[in-house]
Amino acid sequence: MAAASSANLDLTLDVWRQASPDERGGFQRYEMAGMSPDMSFLELLDQLNDRLEREGKEPIAFDHDCREGICGSCGFLINGHAHGPQSGITSCQLHLRSFRSGDHLVVEPWRSSSLPVIKDLVVDRSAFDRIIQAGGFISANTGSAPDANALPVSRTKAELAMDAAACIGCGACVATCKNASAMLFTAAKASQLALLPQGQPERHQRAVRMVEAMDDAGFGNCTNERECEGNCPKQISFSHIARLNRDYIAGKLRAVT
Amino acid sequence: MAIELRSGVPDGAMAEKWSRHQFELKLVNPANKRRYSVIVVGSGLAGASAAASLAELGYGVSCFCIHDSPRRAHSIAAQGGINAAKNYPNDGDSVHRLFYDTVKGGDYRAREANVHRLAEISNSIIDQCVAQGVPFAREYSGLLDNRSFGGAQVSRTFYARGQTGQQLLLGAYGALSRQVGLGNVALHTRHEMLELVLIDGAARGIVTRNLATGAIDAHVADAVVLATGGYGNVYFLSTNAKQSNVTATWRAHRNGALFANPCFVQIHPTCIPVSGSHQSKLTLMSESLRNDGRVWVPRDQGDSRPPAEIPDAERNYYLEERYPSFGNLVPRDVASRAAKAVCDDGFGVGATGQAVFLDFRDAQARMGRPAVEQKYGNLFQMYEQITGENGYQTPMRIFPAVHYTMGGLWVDYNLQSTVPGLFVIGEANFSDHGANRLGASALMQGLADGYFVLPYTIGGYLAEATLPPADGSHAACGDAVRTATGRLERLLAVGGSTPVDDLHRELGQVMWDHAGMSRNATHLGAAKDAVRVLRERFWREVGVPGAQAGINQPLERAGRLADFLEFGELLIDDALHRNESCGSHFREEHQTDDNEALRNDDEYAYVAAWEYRGEDTAAALHREPLEFIEVKPSVRSYK
């Protein structure tokens, strides 16, 4: 962890304000004095919004829900880092003790034309849903399953699948990629299912469909920069992208033959 | 309105009721299913599994959620696991034992037949989830691993690290997404249900606000399913997600659906304490910590020495002293009340005095720090992330927090509310957990309802119902849209300057202080008055900036708080009327000489189902008597 502050902090925030998808946005400066180091970053925004609401002004819109790092709703660039300067956490898990009094924080929404801004820090991530709808599942109708222990799964594979399955769909990978690629998001799901025996029948078709949906949504391609892995709050490995690429190629070749 | 509560529990032996009922339910011809449409509100475990399963059967489904994606519903935050009666560990588990434990754990306030069905279905859920690719923990053999959870004496809990809820939800979300991709489910994200539409007395639709654009629309179908979760946020601070709310169920209640047992609220003992007035929500730490951590407070009030400097003789290990046989592993309700009692007596620790220690000093001495790290490392990390303290070096501080609500809309055996065509599943209904829910059974119930119960029972309803054709132009839709719009306009027009959250915090404080872990008639009466005053103040003082159009988060919160302010009073009424202590509901007037809960089966072995009678009229009580045929009520003792 960064040097811990125990005294209250004075922070300067530059926050992206944008009234609607079609309007031009811009940064607005807010001074926040005497903030507790025990406050989470979202609670800092709560404090600011409380002040704005008392002044009869519109508060800063931002997505949030569970506030414990699992729902994937929240997420901003804080001084250019997705979810802030610490690795392995989401914005809601970031606490002010990670900062120093006097710090200047620039807070922006994810930047990608495939995740367009709706308002302030809120972006439209429905493209992620469309990628999953295209093939991010195993087609097992309710009631059709054999006994759960009928198909043993190697523990190593199950653990690797779980590593990939930890993705929370927040969008940090896209926001930090210079190509605005959604390959880490897409690969996390495709790879989870490709690692499991249950996922084999649809494996190659799944890869092709998901990648095509990703391309349709306008996400860029992967050029092996690994920014996504470094900024992923769940530290999902870049190696899953390799597995997706292999399955995608296999799927394409099968389609040809 | 004359209401007769008919549970509709089928005749026959307990173990045969569900299969018999499945046979007796009328079927909808496969070719006709596509002529029926169903609205599912909510996309958590119950909603997503129901929407997917109904679409697989061929029904036309519309699914609504308040999030930007169905994957973000609060089921995602469940950590521990999901129970099933597989008996893979060969340790004596069975459908009957799971059924028995759940009825007993619920302190004999659940409907036996529903619980039995839940236990029967539990195994199919695990099969279904594995088939979907849910990465449950496995043994080196490749077979599924189980652990013991929440004090159960058998290992029946399946888990996926500390993210079981996430993985189960993503499985259901995958199944739902597949049906969306196939065109069988119309998905409406960022939509909040604001009204229920009734046509000829049956639930036929909902009115929603598009949270991104502000548009208000009516949606019509042949049946409506609510899977909208619990009402824990009436306490403001809880482990629930910030957006979890009572609006959908409360609007249904106002339209005729009875609300059952609202006073049954589960308070979880191992949460990270409040750090200051900025606190926006509470974080749960898995109760598995109590397996090795020891709970204590100093024997001297206001002892401000660092905990490590307080010698053992001056520590009060109050759970071990009071409950020698269960010690730190007493059930959730018992552990929570004991923590409150020592803090109320002035022995609490930390800056606020609202916390007790959970100490791993002895566990590290016994097992070594690496073993503690291996077992609980992620929880220690989480604790340090939030508090800035190292739990290996200094005891953790914990305090109870509102976690789950057992009460909900009353439903019959078919999961249908008192409004025909309105089905309620998952945490939103009341049916399976009685007065106290056991660990790892919420996920089980959500998925049982959605995958395996509702898809059958809703077919029985549709096959027999006579539903006139209707669409959004029906007068009832116009009326419901006007009601919803009028309410939003009213909220925006108050023009006060108090932020919504200020008033919500005040409500939460009243509820926590007087209708929380420990209740009495005097405090409940005072709380009822306080909630009424607060409700009046809300409609005078609240400030909602912005407009109806577009994203307006204060407006969303104001609407939800307005409903919580009405609902809170019902919760208090229910707590006031239940003159007994059972499960999570502890009435100080009803305790044994050594301060344990005193249940009153002679007078209160019933479900309290409340009928809405108007904003200024007291709700009317209807009783569904509970019969215990298989599991004879006994006193829960953990001494």
How does this structure look, described?
The complex is a heterodimer of chains A (257) and B (639). By secondary structure, chain A is of the alpha+beta class. Chain A has 2 domains: 9-118, Ubiquitin-like (UB roll) (Roll), CATH 3.10.20.30; 126-256, Orthogonal Bundle (Fumarate Reductase Iron-sulfur Protein, Chain B, domain 2), CATH 1.10.1060. Helices cover 35% and strands 13% of the residues of chain A. Chain A has a 5-stranded mixed sheet. A two-stranded antiparallel sheet of chain A has the order 6-7. With 639 residues, chain B is α+β, with helices and mostly antiparallel strands. Chain B has helices spanning 17-24, 30-33, 45-57, 95-105, 112-131, 164-181, 247-254, 318-322, 332-344, 361-367, 369-387, 442-464, 475-493, 500-515, 521-541, 553-577, 601-604; strands at 37-41, 60-64, 82-83, 157-158, 185-188, 191-199, 202-210, 216-220, 223-226, 259-260, 265-271, 294-298, 315-316, 356-359, 396-405, 408-409, 422-424, 606-611, 620-625. A 5-stranded parallel sheet of chain B has the order 5-2-1-9-17. At the A-B interface, α1, α2 and α3 of A face α3, α5, α6, α11 and α12 of B.
Short description:
With 257 residues, chain A is α+β, with helices and mostly antiparallel strands. Chain A is 35% helix and 13% strand.
In order across it, which strands form the biggest sheet of chain A? Answer: 2-1-5-3-4
What fraction strand of chain B?
Answer: 5-15%
Poorly predicted spans of chain B: none
Within CATH, the superfamily of the largest domain in chain B carries the name FAD/NAD(P)-binding domain
Q: Taking Cα atoms only, what radius of gyration of chain A do you get, to the nearest Å? A: 20 Å
Q: DSSP strand (E) fraction of chain A? A: 5-15%
Terminus-to-terminus distance of chain B: 47 Å
Uncertain segments of chain A of ≥5 residues (pLDDT<50)?
none
* CATH class type of the largest domain in chain A: Mainly Alpha
With helices defined by DSSP (H or I, 4 residues minimum), what is the helix count of chain A? 8
* CATH topology (fold) name of the largest domain in chain B: FAD/NAD(P)-binding domain
What is the CATH top level name of the largest domain in chain B? Alpha Beta
If you consult CATH, what is the topology of the largest domain in chain A?
Fumarate Reductase Iron-sulfur Protein, Chain B, domain 2
CATH architecture of the largest domain in chain B: 3-Layer(bba) Sandwich
User: Roughly how much helix do the residues of chain B carry, as a percent range?
Assistant: 25-40%
Question: What share of residues of chain A is helical?
Answer: 25-40%
Overall geometry of chain B: globular
Sheet with most strands of chain B: 5 strands, parallel
Figure out the total of helices of chain B: 17
Q: How many domains of chain B, as an integer?
A: 3
